[in-house]
Amino acid sequence: MRKILFKLSLLLFGLSSKKVIGKEKGTIIVLIDGLSIDALNYAIKKKYCPTLKKLSNGKYKLSNYYCGLPASTTATEALLFYGNNYNIPGFTWYDRQLQKFVRGNRSLELTEFEDAYVKKRNLLENGSVVMGVYSGGATELNMSGRNLAFSRSLYLLKTAHYFLMALLYPVQLMRTLYLTLKTIILYRRANRQSAEETFARIVLGQFSCFLTEIEIMRNTKRIFVDFLLYDEYAHEHGPIHPTTLSTLRLIDRYIKRIVHYTKNAQRSYNVIFLSDHGQTECIPYDLHSEQSTVDIKKALNNESYTVLKTFGGFIPNMQSKELYVVPAGSTLQLYFSTYLKDSVNEEKIRCVFPGFIEGILTSEAFGWVLVRTSPASYILYGKKGSVVLNANNSYEIKGTPFPITDHKEIERIIHSFQYYATFPNNGDLVVFGNVKDKMVYAFEKNKGNHGGFYGPMTHPFIMTDNPKIAGDSMATLFDTIAIQV
To answer: What is the reported pTM?
Structure first.
């Protein structure tokens, strides 16, 4: 009955199916945003993910990979889709070429950045993207960040039939209402704000699953879908809070539906499950105040400069004397207005703002400061040591800069910094949250965070039944995915 309703809806809205060419397989990439391997294993143990558990106990292999700096969707998806994530320092940054702030959930800025970005491949050519940050070159359905905005009303109007199908499809609507009420009753306070927020988030997840099912029915060769629900709740409640884990129960049901539809599809599909980064439990430093901005201003010790905490959304004045503090999880990008076109080096900073770097590190919340020392050399200062990153890709460790003893993990962190430090879009200084009791200080109002380099945030998961998809590093892993897609 469900299949008949789907086909009737496709016919009603004029959506054609693609003819299957021979035995050519398709690929579906299901991304669970923000889910680390540790959190997934915990959720499986606590019986939140029966479908994923069943798959991992069967022919699918569950493993992790290292995503490195920055542990952020904007960087991970760029590498997966385009084979390149260079110069994307986090979720929010100042783009020195575009001369404006870019944020991962602001459509116009991100579209301009994506259009100008250097792409080595278009992973989703002849395919569809559902809720991705970028389009990935999708030529079928493109429900990415660039099109999910009122500024793209014409495109949304052209694709409105997808949403109408979801709303008019009775099983879909009843399921959304049921899950919303159940989530509010079991996991959240039943007030108007939480009800509206819960409904909106679950509707988005249901739409994502529904659109994926439609694309399977249409025999679309490549399909990417990003389920955002877990990441949003993990920020709000923490990565393994019961309310957060309840979202995985919903996502697990979406996955069950998608897997079921692949079994009855005309085209044979390979399905890859993965996450883009994890989340690390955090200490929200700015929960009730702008303490990080206060600490930066104190360390700067220069009354002629105004210190502004910002997420962008305006054109900065290069003639002014302002220090922009841009938070992204456990990271702060610091940009001096007078050096926005080309970043300033350590020698100049120490000359104009003596004691600034050391002053930053006196704050309890600030653990590390990254600064450029020459055109191709950098140094990462910590509270108990430093790492000199040389131009010839060598490095020198002084003291004990990291609060871990795992040699392999330290090597990974340093190699990640060697790449990350070269981004021209980095701030003149990049500050990373300190670690305390295995938690990281965060500079947004979160209880779980990412964007830095410590803990589960850099260890996402991947689950696939294809042994050719493998690699310890994110770049190697994603290259093998691109070959198979």
So the answer is: 0.91
